[in-house]
Each structure stands twice: as C-alpha cells, then as structure tokens.
Design a protein that fits this description.
The protein has eight helices and four strands. The chain is α+β, with helices and mostly antiparallel strands and 186 residues long. Helix 7 links the parallel strand 1 and strand 2. Helix 1 runs antiparallel to helix 2, helix 2 crosses helix 6 and helix 4 runs antiparallel to helix 5.
C-alpha cells in the first residue's frame, strides 16, 4: 500500500514531465520494458528489494542494464529513485505509469476470461462490446484462459461484468435444485 502511494507520486511527476517534454510515448515504452524485465526475472526484483545489496550497486546495475536503451527522462527518474534509496518502488512505478498513461490517453481496460484461447473474430467482438460498455474509443483487452469455466466467457469492463460461462450457469442451476418446493421451510 505504501509502495503504491509513493509510486503514484513519482508517476504523477513523470507523466507531467513526459507530456511537457513531448516524450510520453518513449517513457511509456520504457516503463513497459521495465515491467517486462520485472515479470520475466524474479531475481531482478529481488535485487531491487534486497536490503543487503548496497544502493550504489543497485544504481550501477540499473545504469548498466538500461543506459542507452531508455530515454533520458526515464533514466533520470531511475536515478532520482535510487538516490533516495527507493529502488523497491521501481516495479510499482513502471506498472502504475501504464495505468496513468491509459487514463491520460482515454484508453479503457477490459479483461476477458475464456476456456480456450480466443480467435481473432471473438477478440474483435469483445473489443466492440467493451468499447460500448466503457464508452471509450480505445480498449486494451487482456485475455486469460481458465478451463474451469467449462465453456463460455467472463468479460470485465470497469465495474461491469458479463458472466456467460457454463460454470456460473451450472452453479445457478445447482442452487435452484437445492430449493425444494415440496418440503415446508421453517
């Protein structure tokens, strides 16, 4: 919780600077790269969180990894964060920046869960439905596969959910069978 609060402050400043300097797209790509590195390498995140590794060493590692690969503004925020000994917050900054970018650009987010990987046609249909539900021109659709649904799909857009899964229909049917109208309820 505290990391997110600290991260949101850095993100707010970084977003403002990126817009002001016309580097929003570059910084967004950099933050996505940073998030990808964090997802793919748990040791990298553990290094950032480690109290045993000195802050100077963390700064040197970050500089070696990202210098020349990210924009000057991104490198500057990394340096500022490491100078303040807050390296563990960097992954939260990277993921929170993506959310702030989407909010700034008016991009909605939707989550689709299916039993099998969706094909192109289904994705287009879900994109259209999500755009209408979110009232946005652009939607970022994240998909997951869950074989426990048995069939159908679950679509989450904002605070709305469309649950057209077989699992929920079976659960609903099960509850109806539990109601026995022939036995007097007390």
């Amino acid at each position: 919780m505290a990391d997110n609060r600290v991260a949101s402050r850095y993100v707010k400043s970084l977003l403002g600077l990126a817009v002001e300097q016309g580097a929003l797209e570059a910084v967004h790509r950099d933050m996505q790269l940073f998030s990808q590195v964090c997802k793919e390498n748990r040791n990298f995140v553990a290094m950032l969180r480690s109290p045993v590794i000195r802050h100077e060493n963390k700064r040197a590692i970050l500089k070696k990894l990202f210098s020349g690969k990210v924009s000057d503004l991104t490198m500057a925020i990394i340096n500022i964060v490491t100078q303040k000994n807050r390296e563990p917050v960097l992954p939260a900054i990277a993921s929170e920046f993506h959310n702030a970018y989407n909010a700034y650009k008016g991009i909605g987010k939707a989550f689709l869960t299916t039993t099998v990987p969706p094909d192109k046609d289904l994705l287009e249909i879900m994109q259209a439905i999500s755009k209408k539900l979110a009232n946005k021109q652009t939607i970022e659709l994240e998909t997951t596969v869950d074989s426990n649904l048995v069939g159908g799909f679950i679509l989450n857009v904002g605070d709305r959910q469309i649950d057209a899964s077989i699992r929920s229909k079976l659960r609903s049917l099960d509850l109806k069978f539990e109601e026995n109208y022939f036995i007097k309820q007390s």
